[in-house]
């Protein structure tokens, strides 16, 4: 009998030694915890890692549970007891995080995990494992603080911040989108933002964004975006891609944009003032010649049709001499008004001299240009201008030429000018095509 007891004791001791050797290889503490029917708590078994984690020898904890329990942070002890009692009542796995005041003076975060079982005497025995998660908690708290700071910035910055995926679908829009574009952020999420751009702009912007993102470069551009009320807003945007470290492809595109509508309006107004004749609303000579050069290059490239019309006011010097320059200006202003209300939106109207004007008619044949010029001539002929109680009238002569293949701008203008010269020579107030 004694031999059997000694053998059993030896076997138990060997098992304990194996348990200790195994527990030393683990990053935390293995333990058994028992809750008696009278509510008392004790630790039948604790691994040697207790010393390194909690600063207490395992034997002390098994002998006096208060040595460990007294170290639990006072703000966490109640929650600890509630979680144990809930686990004991339902025999559910216990899982809890708490702070522990280490004897060295620092506070550590501990995560406990244990499986309960009911004993014959009604007590509950947990088999569990504790690990130190202080670094994880600090990182987690630092991340939360960082997120809190960034969220505060994003939610209060006046610029619009948008995050898109590689397909151009909006995944996040800052609250400032309400102020800038009139949408609530949720209305934009899961939608492709290029759909808010004018159809003529969207393909170009999409291509520029894709090319810059594939190169991993930040793209700065000015775009028009439709406001919730229907009008367009000019935005100055800086778009930065996020490249995946795994495959080098871009996964996200961050756009930070601000409303520059007022600035664009000022710029366009300044451009208009620098290129437009204030009296007639026509382009000035330099701007008109630039448009004619571009139109000719395009027509030569596509072999499209283009006609030029030159015209001026008949006997304009006599009007100035008889009634003064104020009357002459009134005549020119009236001429400009008739042109602006008669011409198509893509017809280009310019003032190239004192009383000399010109039209660029893209896509128009010589015959179509003749019809338009005749319509203008009739309107000018019917106009009466009131000047200090007197009614003034005026007529206009026209010269027309259609682009020939390979013809220079100088050559085209010369032929139209010869048509105008012929109209003057043949009696004025007429439309004459170039030879």
Automatic annotation (TrEMBL):
It catalyses: 2 GTP = 3',3'-c-di-GMP + 2 diphosphate. CDD domains: GGDEF, PAS. SMART domains: GGDEF (SM00267), PAC (SM00086), PAS (SM00091). Its EC number is 2.7.7.65. Residues 304-435 form the GGDEF domain. It holds the Pfam family GGDEF. It is an enzyme of class 2 (transferase). Residues 146-216 form the PAS domain. Residues 94-145, 219-272 form the PAC domain. This is diguanylate cyclase. It comes from Litchfieldella qijiaojingensis.
